[in-house]
Amino acid sequence: MTHTAAAYDMLGGRPLEDLRQLAQRIHATTAQPTTPAHELRAHLHARRPAAADGATAYERTADFLAELSSSRAKLAEQRGGAGGEVWRALAHEQMRGSSLLAAWVAESLALVAALGSRADALLAADTWAAGRLAAHRGATGAEYAPRDAEDALGAGEADNTRLLGVFVRGVRALDAMGSAAAWVAQGVAQGVSLFCTQEAAAAAAAKAGHPGTWDRPVLGPLVQRAQRAGATLDALLQTTAWVSSACMRGAQLALLEVRQLELFSLVVEYPASARALDDLRMCCAGQPGMLRATADRLQRDVCARLLHAGAATGDIVGFYAAAVGALGRVDRTGLVLWAVAGPIRRYLQGRSDAVACIVGELLDGALADGGPEGAAELSSAALLVEGEEEPEGTWHPRPRDAQGAGTAAADVAVQLLGVFDTDAYVRAFDGMLAGRLLRLAAYDASAEVRQVERMGGYLGARAVERSRVMLRDIAESRRLDGQISGATGLHATVVSRQFWPTAIATTTAAGAASAAAAAAREPSWTLPPEMERLAAQWAGAYEALRPARRLEWRHALGSVALEVEMLDGRTVRMRVRPIDAAVLVAIEEMGRVDARSIAEALECTDVPWVRTRLRAWVARGVLREPAVGVFEPADHRAAADDGGGALAETAAAAGEEEVHGEMEELEEHEPEVDAGVPDLSVHYNYIVGMLTNIGPLPLDRMHAMLAMFVPGDATTAEQLRAFLAVKLRDDDERLEMSGGMYRLRG
Amino acid sequence: MSAVASSGASLDAAVAKRLQSELMTLMMASLPGISAFPQSDNLLLWTGTLTGAPSTVYEGLQYKLRLQFPSDYPFTAPTITFETPCWHPNVDERGNICLDILKEKWSAVYNVQTILLSLQTLLGDPNVSSPLNGPAAQLWEDQEEYKRVLLKHYKEHAQ
Description:
Chain B: Belongs to the ubiquitin-conjugating enzyme family. The complex is a heterodimer. Chain A is α+β, with helices and mostly antiparallel strands. Helix content of chain A is 64%, strand content 8%. In chain A, the strands form 3 sheets. Chain A has a 4-stranded mixed sheet. In chain A, helix 16 packs antiparallel against helix 17, helix 18 (354-364) crosses helix 22 (422-438) and helix 28 (578-590) crosses helix 30. Chain B is elongated, with a radius of gyration of 16 Å. Chain B is α+β, with helices and mostly antiparallel strands. Chain B contains 5 helices and 4 strands; from the N terminus they run ααββββααα. In chain B, strand 1 and strand 2 (45-51) form a beta hairpin. Chain B has helices at 2-5, 13-29, 112-124, 134-139, 143-157; strands at 34-38, 45-51, 62-68, 79-82. In chain B, strands 1-2-3-4 form a 4-stranded antiparallel sheet. At the A-B interface, helix 32 and helix 33 of A face helix 2, strand 1 and strand 2 of B.
């Protein structure tokens, strides 16, 4: 028995001062450790604490060993090597205060190793260092995480493996010695290694989940890695998948955390982020409550990052559309989508341009183009998911909103169209369609026909009836154009007053909101005689063909192709608004004039507007404004300011104008009002009555009540709807509708 | 009351016809400030809407009414109460109205439209000598103060 063993004997019940002295002595002794391993083992085994008094005894030992650790550091230092350095630093840290059970047991193991075998001493020190570090991190994780954790453990699989290797070698060394303390070592090793590997897995997960790795699955390889690391330890510690399963779980949770944080971006990037979303789904599977946590987290993100005044409506609608696909991938129950759809819908309902944006998204968004392809992708993903079992405890009833297991495109459409009632979309679509049809060149509406078909698919054939009439008007106009226009060079689009949006169809478009209406809102003015003659000629030919109808021109919606011959001889071709053409014709006749004279010539009362139109020509370089409010044709030959000279030249300032083609809007009055929309003015009195007294009502209630109270009523619900749709469109009525309920404006 | 309400199914055809034609008259006339309509499929129970006439203290204030017609209408007067709390000398806090044509002076020649017009008149021209609401009646002389109290009451109860 050596000094060391004797020193251990002396441990029991000594005052601390004595222990210090002992430490000094042991320090001297251990400089040349000689104790055979088997003696030490027997000794330690004998001193193993009984359950009751163990803690106190070990605490004392801890104090003692704390003293001792500085000598171990010196020993390690003599031997050199990084392990010793680490150990020393950690020993120092331990001296400062934290006296964890695991720490001192690990230290005692290091001591044992050092005493037992010179060769293994450093290795044991390394073991201790690793264990100590991990244990310490376990106690004060927050201090080290996350940078340190990543640096020390998770920077790469290689580092992680190296660390584990050191640890495992240490444990193995102890085992070889057959030390009595091996049982402690086992426990500590398990705890420590678990922590090490979990931490490492988490760090690896955080790394793997970093943006940029959304294009491939991360979870699978990560879990495999965690399992491999854990399995090595399991084998050494002779545990059954104890460490490895914990490692896998740790990795999974860590990745889940990363993906939850990223989910908002994942939705924005969808479908590029599809793989990352799959990871998220698999992370949530089998983790009770995780879907809900994910939903809550995303909902917060959406409210904070998307639903505020700074976000464009189109972006919000786009996000919503992407979310349908993306979140459907994460969660088939629709819970997550449902959590964000609610706030988004409520928010969108407060945005005036939301309807138009949604219609735009449905017609022109990625959805419209990649529809079939996207649908195929999703359905294959759905098949993949079918195989997985619904984990217990995560089942949620399918929310009412999450309709249809149809195609991706159909799902998106269902969600988007649910934000407002159908009539709002129909109105917005009609407005957009009207605008597009009026801008058509050569009556080619094939793109618009496809749009109407698509919209019909979303909203039902009935909803696009009006649109179909608009398309028919265009086709009819094309025929008329062939019959009439040849002589006049004027191409007209004849639209039916009943079916085109009010803003276009009525002369007083005040208060109308659509884009097409803005163009139509133009002060009244008269065509120059030349143009007027062409229009009259056209109208005459039309009325000869369609005797029962009358045309009303909408100059503001047309355009004129001009060929302007400049003073310098150049010829400029351009397509302009009719008013611009009229202004130019007028100035050609009148020479140098002010805006008021032009306005009088055009019989227009809005002089500032006429001046704006004149300035538009100045901007094009065709006119110039030598004095404020006075205009004359520009002469680019004379660069110098030639004031009065220009006046003389105005006669030659040939804004020679050829009415190449003029598209103007007109509408036809059909004597028989419209077979589709019956005159229900009596009913309307009743409707106002019931809405005044009962409050907002859905169509079917109104229809039922009318059937009951209006004598001899035989109106169908559809007729009523059509009639009310016209009422809704006409701004002079007090009727409005939202959420399927009709009401009167207060 | 409930017995009457549930008698909708066995409603006398003559009564139904009368009420239906009254509804027609009322709807087609669409007089400003007065309106009424059956609450549901029961012709005997209507909801009315009364708006105070211009240049009275009740100008623009809107009140909901409940009109319950007896099964022998028009031989008996309908029971009319304010659903919206109404601060008025001739209306009590439960909405009961003191108006002679609805009580002893009822006659079968009256109809919904005339009743509603009478009520609209009553709003701006109360009968202060037989009040159901004493404080309101006392305050009527001081139109400015009356309007202040009225608007406060309306704001608290009707909106």
